[in-house]
Amino acid sequence: MKLTRTIMALAAFAVAFSAQAGDEGFKISGDFATSYTNDSGGGYNLGAAHNSFSFDLAEINLEKSMGNSRFHIAIGYGEIMESFNNVADTTQFVPGTDSAGDAGFGSKSTANLTNAYFAHSFDFGVNFRLGRFQTFLGAEDYHVQDNMNYTFSYGYANLAPKFHTGLEVSYNFADTVDAALYIVNSAANTDLDENEKMGYGLSVAFTGIENATLKVNYLASRRGANAAGKGTTITPLITPATDDTYLEVLAMYDMDMMNFGIDYTMYTRGGLNGAADTEASSIAAYAGWNGEGMGAALRYEMVTNDDGIIRGVANNDITAITLSGYYEPDTNARIMAEVRMDSDDQNTFRDDANAADDGMMQYNIALMYQF
Predict the structure, then answer these.
(1) How far is CA 274 from the centre of its chain?
(2) Is 70 exceeded by the pLDDT of residue 309?
């Protein structure tokens, strides 16, 4: 039924825009990604369907431009959307992930309205978006073909929201500094009353050094106490809301065939009822080589997880090494092979006999296509 509803929704949007198909201001684009995961001889992620095929992403984007304005809408389907919709803190997307065993309070739907916004650019340099749009946080993208690796880092998958609903206002200063302000709904959407739980964000990017970008992102988001009130209008908050904060510092350096990056993410979860705040952080280093129709990338990530925000176990620092290589048979398609090795302090992975293991090794092969 979920797939049927998704197909019907996409068809409805296509029909609604079909009258504009001959208009130069109308554009259709999309992403597709599927993969196979094998973890023979190594641990696998608890709750994951290992040694299996995975339909990870199918997204269609429809956009209509009208002078300085544009309307954009997109719907995504697949395992990536399911892992995002299920907002359990223990969810770490890997190809083949099955969220049925996760303990989150989010939807188990594999469909997601990823973007639905109106945007306008003023002649004096100010731009704004209003609606639902992809987060400004993170060094990675849910459009996996745009990433250096196929699987996500813990910093992206576990420590930041993926979408926002609200307002973005941006401005470019002197061609070297871009800044954006955000007023958005709470990242922890636990009920329908957002009046006292709005999120406020700031993103500043500096591009004054050739080939280099330094970006600082910050989001402060109010969070309510009761997940039981989600989806109702009558359940009040049990306790006052608290503050969650997200801080990210991202540095990137791009050359003709090489690119490098380092991303630091800190998530602080406010304590409820006077409880102490908890936090987790990630630092990930990226290195990539891009040749003619082929490339390779390495990601090394260290996660500080003393409070157990990731994977639900305290004093459990995590290390992950991911090596990927890809081949592009044409400009739209990419075939990627990946080896990923994760390890932690508290043996939260599982081996082939379903016994506790301090590590996970995965081999992934993926096919991606963009149009």
Answers:
(1) 31
(2) yes
What pTM does this model have? 0.82
Paired tokens of 84: 């995002």
Cα–Cα distances (Å) from 153 to 98, 125, 182, 295, 307, in that order, read 18, 34, 24, 19, 19
Give the mean model confidence (pLDDT) for residues 303-328: 93
Q: Which has the higher per-residue pLDDT, 38 or 106?
A: 38
Burial of 331 (0-12, 13-18, 19+ CB in 10 A): exposed
Alpha carbons 355 and 99: distance in angstroms, whole number: 20
- E strand or H helix at 84, and its extent? helix 79-85
Phi and psi, residue 183, nearest 5°: -125, 110
- Calculate Rg over the CA atoms of the chain: 21
Q: Check residue 329 and give left, alpha or beta (phi > 0: left; psi -120 to 50: alpha).
A: alpha
Residue 94 pLDDT > 50: no
- On average, the pLDDT of the chain sits at 81
How many Å apart are CA 290 and CA 224, to the nearest integer? 45
Q: Is-contact 105 231, C-beta < 8 A?
A: no
